[in-house]
Design goal:
Blueprint lengths: L2 E5 L23 E3 L5 E3 H4 L6 E7 L4 H16 L7 E7 L6 H11 L4 E3 L5 H9 L11 E5 L5 E3 L6 H13 L8 E10 L10 E4 L7 E2 L5 E8 L5 E6 L10 H11 L8 H7 L9 H11 L11 E5 L34 E7 L9
Parallel strand pairs: 4-5, 5-6, 9-15
Antiparallel strand pairs: 1-13, 2-3, 4-7, 7-8, 9-12, 10-11, 10-13, 14-15
Helix pairs in contact: 2-5, 6-8
């Protein structure tokens, strides 16, 4: 049985990327000396090496730039900290921002990427992008994304700082560069509604090279894989075993008592398990099918015999939960890009027909 459990690693906001067309001239070359006293050329050191370059036009005391800094730094980490296919260069617009000032600034705010002040050639490097040649310059912060072939995307932005980061990320992707994968480790547990662990269930992150991992006797699992930030991944869950696991005559009796109103089920998990034929209702037909399973007169179910539900999911209609989407939504997994501080997954397993949760 396969079940897809959505794992939100990053919930991106819709953003706009400024148009970049062949009408814009190629990026002019420039030479700067960054605050670490190293001379760098746009084409020789980056573009000609197949790298995309992001120019971050700012100045030290720019208020909006200071608000943007906590969002910009994680994006730089996502793109490999300059060791992969993208390099970020911070270039100041202010004559009074010297390289020594930038060194102090970098140390204070932990600004992670290379920067150049006026004495390092920043004013000359950014002049084509502030004089109207590529678009209207309305102030800092300004981003300019330069593809390895010199094509320019000017001023990608969104309606908020977060949306601007998303637009910048998309503009980088549009240059053809691939974001490096990052090692990601996580853990979780699969239990029955009564808390007992589900052993030998298989867990895998889809669309990765990761093999299935198997839950232990307590239902616990852990996995390690490589994921790309700002992409949504899903967990695939599978459970094999006898279709009769947990199904006995006691389940038939309890199902009958529920239908007769003698001992109604109160748990949405029980109601889901009791809908044996998966019709969306609990009726005599479920009793008949369950009895046939017990007597080995029937060996199959209309659908899979296992359902997995996000333990954080809140049922919209717990008295009739049959058609709800049990994976939950993004609010159930408030992931940040490749965060290592995410709580372990908690997943509830339901064995169809096992209304007293006795499956092992």
């Amino acid at each position: 049985m396969k079940f897809i459990f959505t794992l939100f690693l990053f919930y991106a906001i819709a953003a706009q990327v400024s148009a970049q067309t062949d009408t814009l001239p190629p990026a002019p070359d420039f030479t700067i000396t960054t605050s670490d006293s190293i001379r760098r050329q746009l084409y020789a050191d980056y573009l000609s090496q197949g790298k995309t370059v992001v120019l971050y036009v700012f100045f030290i005391d720019c208020p909006v730039c200071q608000e943007l800094e906590p969002l910009l730094t994680p994006l730089y980490h996502e793109w490999g900290n300059g060791t992969a296919g993208v390099e970020f260069l911070s270039l100041s617009t202010q004559f009074n921002d010297h390289n020594q000032d930038l060194n102090t600034f970098i140390g204070m705010v932990e600004h992670p990427f290379l920067a150049a002040g006026s004495d390092g050639g920043s004013l000359e490097a950014i002049e084509p992008y502030t004089n109207g040649k590529y678009g209207l310059f309305i102030g800092t912060p300004l981003f300019v994304v330069i593809a390895p072939n010199g094509n320019v995307t000017y001023d990608p932005k969104g309606e908020s700082l977060e949306a601007t980061i998303d637009a910048l990320n998309q503009a980088i992707l549009n240059t053809g560069v691939e974001k490096p994968a990052v090692a990601f480790q996580h853990s979780g547990s699969i239990t029955f509604p009564n808390g007992n662990g589900v052993a030998n269930a298989k867990v895998k992150v889809r669309n990765t090279d990761t093999d299935f991992t198997t839950t232990d006797s307590t239902g616990a699992f852990q996995f390690e894989t490589s994921l790309i930030a700002r992409k949504n991944y899903s967990i695939q869950l599978e459970k094999e075993g006898s279709i009769l696991s947990g199904i006995t005559t006691l389940d038939v009796v309890k199902l009958q008592r529920h239908i007769l109103g003698i001992e109604p089920f109160t748990s949405p998990y029980q109601l889901i398990a009791a809908d044996v034929d998966r019709s969306g209702t609990i009726s005599v037909s479920d009793v008949i099918l369950l009895r046939k399973l017990v007597l080995n007169l029937e060996t199959t179910l209309p659908n899979s015999s296992w359902i997995f539900i996000n333990a954080n999911y809140t049922f919209g209609n717990p008295e009739a939960p049959f058609f709800e989407v049990y994976t939950g939504d993004a609010s159930a997994f408030p992931y940040k890009p490749l965060s290592k501080e995410v709580a372990p997954f908690k997943i509830i397993a339901i064995k169809i027909g096992d209304v007293n949760f006795s499956a092992t």
